[in-house]
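--- STAGE predict ---
source: upstream dedup step, 1 unique chain passed
mode: sequence only
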Amino acid sequence: MNPVRKRVAPLLVACSCLFFWPSRANAQGPVFDESQRSLVGPGCWCDDVAVGDLDGDGDLDVASIGNFSGDFVAYNDGIGSFTRQYLNQAGPRTIKSLVLADYDNDGDLDIGGSGPWYRNEGGGSFVPIAPVVPGVKLAVDLNNDGFLDLVTRQIESPYGHLVYHNDHQGGYALVQVLGDDGGGWPAATTADVDRDGDLDIFVGKKLFLNSGNGSFVDSGQDFTAPESPGYGSYDAAFSDLNNDGEVDLVLVTPAWGCYPYLNSGTGLFTWTGETLPDTYTIALADVDLDGKIDMVTSNGPGGVYLGDGLGSFSGPVQTFTPSQQSPTYEVALAHLDQDCSIDVIVGAAGVPGKNTCGSPYAYRNILNEFDSDADGVCDPLDNCPNYPNPVQEDLDTDGIGDACDNCPSVYNPEQYNLDGDNLGDACDQDLDGDGVLNDQDACPANRPDLPVTCNGRPLRDCNSDCNVDGLDIQCILPELLGQ
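--- STAGE serialize ---
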C-alpha cells in the first residue's frame, strides 16, 4: 500500500496517531517528552487525522479515518486525554484525506474529505451523509465572500485539482481545473503569497495566484524538486522562515528530500540551496518558542529540525520512535492541553507484511509555557505579556508592544521613566515631573524643590548643580547649627 500524501485543512492536520507536546528545545536536547503518553485511539494504518473543536467545548479534539482502524473521533478533556467514539469500521479507500470544516454553515465543524462524510448535529454528535463533493483537500474562502470554497483532487487522468465555489445554497459549483499535476497524491496548501488580500494555491509543483475573485492563473514558477527534475511535491507548507514578514515555502519530494524556498515579497520564490532529509510530510511552527520557525517531519522515525530565523534548519535534535516500529507518515501541530506551547501530532502506520500497526499516543510537552494575558501569544513571545494585544502592534519597533510601551511612537527599548508617570523619558516633556517643561527647566532631569531633609531641615540646590546632595549642605550649615 502506498503511503498517504496530503496537506489539507484550514485546520491543523496529521495522519494517524501519535500526539506529542513540545518543550523548549536546544541543539543538544530533545524537544518532546516521550515518557508521558496517553492513548488516543486504535491504529492500524490510520490514513489521516484532523484536529479541531468538534464538540464546541473550547479545546481541540481529534478525528481520524483509516483503512483498517476505522473512522473515529476522540474528544479532548482539556488537558490532553481523549475519549474515543467510533463512527464506523471503514475499509480501503482510493483517496485519503480528512478535512474538518463547517460545510453546512451551521456553526460547527463537519467531517469531510475522501471517504464517508459526517455532519455535526451539534455538541460533537455525528451522522453519516453523502459527500457533498468527493476528494476534498482544501476548504477555505477563495473569493472573499464569507463562505467556504473547495479544492479537490481528480484521481483519474488527466490529473488535476478542481476549484469549487460555494453557491450559498448548500452546494458547490465547479469553476476551474488547475491542470495536470503529475498524478500520485501531490501537495495542496494555500496562503496569500503576494499580499494582495486573497488566498493563492500551491498544488503539486505549481503555484497558482488568485485573481481576486477565486479564479487562478499559473505563476509560471517551476517547483520541481531541485535535485530530481520532473518530480513535484508530496507535501508543502507555508510559513515565514526568515522573519521578514513574507510567507515562505517548504516542499517535500519523497525519495529525494525537503526543500526550503524564500519569498521575495511579491510571490517569487528562490530555493535556499539547502536539502533536508527525505520525509513524507512536514509541519512548521515555532515549537521551542524562540521566535523562529522550526520543522517537524515524518518518515521512518521522523524528526525535529530547529530554524535559525534565516531560512535554514539544524538537526534533527530529536527523532520519534513509532509504536511497534511502524513508520511515521504524517505530522501536524496544534494546542492539545491548557498551556500555550505548540503540540505536535505524529502519525504512524502499519508495515505491510510485518503485521505491525501504528498506535495513537499523546505525549505531554515539557515546556509548559502560559499566556498570562490570554491574548493568544505565549509569554516568552509576547511583547506585552501582561497586557492583551493579540496583533502585537509595535509602532516604533523597539520590541515593546504599543499596549504597554510608555512611548509607543518613540524608540525606547529600555523604557526609562525618571518621574514614574505614564510617559517614558523619551517622550516626556517634563522629565522630572516638577511641573516645569524641559525646555524651560534649569534642571529638567532633577527636582531641587523636593523635600529632601537633613535633621528635619530641607536641603536646597544651593550650588545650582541640579542635584540636591551633600554638596549643598554647606549652604544651609548655619541653619543646621541654629544660627
